[in-house]
């Protein structure tokens, strides 16, 4: 029996139940993925403000590199989901294999180029000599793991496309626990293991990334989880890859524009000195943790919209998006309230002994966290657009939000008003609110649903009358 055929479609039954069934494991999985960075920050924070700043400046650069590959995982997930909704199971397996080939090739190219250019990239971001060597050693190790990081991201996207979200969650639980134990081992050293310092956190992450991808590939080849791969299926299908590139490239630009925006924000913070840079690094990590529920709901929305479009049920696709937007706004409103109340304990969890950084980071979190509910709206609308194959629309919304709103506002408020570096914090509020309003106008126009990306079923033959 084909395991893909046995897996139920999410195109029937109560919409809210289907959305929560898919979204909750994704949210927990994303929390665990972010846990890698949070665990690193926890242990690195014991090394002082310079170590925290070195890791903080690498975060947006690594995010940019991962974003370039994540767009193609979006394409793989959408193509798998729409074909799964259409019950074209042979194409589901074919798309999965070709998506992995494309993602691996891209990761290899980026690894070679980024590793060689690491010092130049850090200089372009204005990283000071006091943290340059720490940042370069940490960043280069992360770059060595791009192939495995990209591979596991694609594995999660393919599983999500067929509605299987538990297996990636279980893998994340196990590898995060391992990472928590490896961090102090590689940072401080023990026995024959040397002390790598800041770079030790990156070596721990690399080790668990290799393990995660290896398990994920074994799951796909075993074929018991909704997708059945074979080594023969990895032979390149250039026509399908070209189609995936056309669908995935706008998503890569979308995510890269967001990552570049974070990098430029880091540059603005770095201009105010190491203390402000460390403050921004801690505060932005806490905010990134806060929007994880919105990202999970957005990914679930994208999958469900794609499956319903593949099943040619456009009204249900639209209703799913409506549910996701309402759920995300409400959920992030509660997260924002909790984040405001818990701002100081959260900051102190990541940094000990530096009261100036702690005070400023608490202020940053409390200013920005209340606007996360608007980020939830924008994220879910973008997820619906991607599920409909309209990745170009999602890209435009991101570029306007990041480059047309947040960065200019942050630059103006921090450089040309009495707010100083506090203007960086307020730019999050302005950009989140205006981006959500723009996305809502786009969505309410009702033209975001596109023709689905699967071939129409052949009509049944009609017998001629005798």
UniProtKB/TrEMBL annotation:
Q: Mind listing the GO molecular function terms for this protein?
A: antiporter activity; xenobiotic transmembrane transporter activity
The UniProt entry's GO CC annotations, sorted and at most eight, read:
plasma membrane
Q: Does the keyword Nucleotide-binding apply?
A: no
Mention any Pfam family matching this sequence. MatE
Q: Which UniProt keywords apply?
A: Antiport, Cell membrane, Ion transport, Membrane, Transmembrane, Transmembrane helix, Transport
Q: Which InterPro entries match?
A: MATE_fam, MATE_MdtK, MdtK-like
Question: Which CDD domains does the annotation name?
Answer: MATE_like_12
Give membrane topology per the record: Multi-pass membrane protein
Q: Where are the transmembrane segments?
A: 20-39, 51-80, 100-125, 137-155, 167-187, 193-221, 259-280, 286-309, 321-343, 363-385, 392-413, 425-444
Where does it localize? Cell membrane
Can you name this protein? Multidrug-efflux transporter
């Amino acid at each position: 029996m084909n395991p893909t055929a046995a897996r139920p479609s999410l195109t029937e039954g109560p919409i809210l139940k289907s959305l929560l069934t898919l979204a909750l494991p994704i949210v927990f999985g994303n929390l665990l993925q972010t846990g890698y960075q949070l665990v690193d920050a926890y242990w690195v924070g014991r090394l002082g403000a310079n170590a925290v700043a070195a890791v903080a400046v690498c975060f947006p650069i690594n995010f940019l590199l991962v974003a370039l590959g994540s767009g193609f995982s979006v394409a793989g997930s959408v193509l798998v989901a729409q074909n799964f909704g259409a019950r074209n199971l042979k194409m589901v397996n074919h798309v999965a294999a070709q998506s992995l080939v494309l993602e691996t090739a891209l990761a290899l190219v980026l690894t070679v180029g980024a590793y060689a250019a690491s010092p130049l990239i850090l200089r372009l971001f204005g990283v000071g000599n006091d943290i340059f060597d720490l940042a370069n050693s940490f960043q280069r190790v992360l770059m060595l793991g791009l192939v495995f990081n990209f591979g596991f991201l694609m594995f999660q996207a393919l599983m999500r496309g067929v509605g299987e979200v538990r297996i990636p969650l279980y893998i994340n639980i196990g590898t995060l626990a391992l990472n928590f134990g490896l961090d102090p081992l590689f940072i401080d050293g023990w026995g024959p293991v040397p002390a790598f310092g800041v770079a030790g956190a990156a070596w721990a992450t690399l080790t668990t990334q290799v393990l995660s991808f290896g398990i994920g590939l074994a799951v796909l080849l075993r074929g018991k989880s909704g997708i059945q791969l074979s080594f023969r299926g990895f032979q390149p299908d250039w026509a399908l890859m070209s189609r995936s590139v056309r669908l995935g490239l706008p998503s890569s630009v979308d995510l890269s524009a967001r990552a570049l925006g974070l990098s430029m924000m880091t540059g603005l913070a770095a201009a105010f000195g190491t203390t402000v840079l460390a403050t921004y690094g801690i505060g932005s990590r806490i905010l990134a943790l806060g929007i994880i529920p919105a990202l999970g709901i957005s990914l679930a929305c994208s999958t469900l919209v794609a499956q319903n479009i593949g099943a040619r049920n456009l009204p249900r696709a639209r209703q799913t998006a409506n549910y996701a937007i309402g759920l995300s706004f409400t959920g992030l409103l509660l997260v924002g309230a909790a984040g405001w109340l818990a701002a100081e304990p959260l900051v102190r969890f990541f940094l000990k002994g530096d009261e100036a950084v702690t005070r400023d980071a608490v202020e940053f979190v409390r200013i920005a966290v209340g606007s996360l509910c608007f980020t939830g709206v924008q994220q879910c609308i973008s997820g619906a657009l991607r599920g409909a194959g309209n990745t170009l629309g999602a890209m435009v919304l991101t570029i306007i939000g990041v480059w047309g709103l947040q960065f200019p506002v942050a630059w103006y408020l921090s450089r040309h008003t009495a707010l100083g570096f506090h203007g960086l914090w307020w730019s999050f509020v302005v950009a989140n609110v205006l981006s959500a309003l723009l996305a809502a106008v786009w969505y309410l126009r009702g033209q975001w649903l596109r023709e689905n990306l699967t071939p129409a079923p052949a009509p049944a033959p009609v017998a001629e009358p005798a």
